[in-house]
Amino acid sequence: MNKSKKMKLSYVTVLGFLVLGLFSCNNENEILNSAKENQLPEVEVSNLSAWSNGTRSSNGTQDEKVLRFRDLETYRKVLSKLSGMTDEEKTSYFQEIGFDGAFTLLQSANNEADLILDSDDLNDIETKANEYKKKYSSMLSFNPEDQYDLTPYLNFTDKELSITGSTNGYVVIGNSLKKPIMHIQHTMTIQWL
Length: 193
Description:
The protein has six helices and six strands. By secondary structure, it is of the alpha+beta class. The strands form two sheets. Strands 1-2-5-6 form a four-stranded mixed beta sheet. It has a two-stranded antiparallel ribbon with strand order 3-4. Strand 5 (171-173) and strand 6 form a beta hairpin. The radius of gyration is 27 Å and the shape is elongated.
């Protein structure tokens, strides 16, 4: 074999190894990325600030906790499971994972309202009702027309996020922050006929 043919063969061989090496590295990266994604837990409690720069809880002192779901399929699966549970089962699930979000907030507020209204003393009810509404004023809405109506409402109307969302309705799916569809300030108007 002449020298020119040997050099061409060497170049082709080296080029082949380079292509094979690059192909091998790409497959290795894909395998590593795929393995990394599968190592993420299905659901985890995370800080909102990790997903949205500068977003803080309404009181500004502590970072709001949000649920992070591995992907949309996982979110839908867990939401379906939670939707089929009783309130007690949902509460137990959230306690188990250490998450106090919109559902837990609303349950706690409802339970507290029931205790206030169990009193027979109207003055006691009025005092405690005012304290109760003040306590939850930054997180929940109330009927402004009736001071004795202690029914709490979330400040957003998204039904899914009322189960899975943070106290302000945020959730993370994959690496994307999902915000509540609509924030509301609950008001009730009475029309006289």
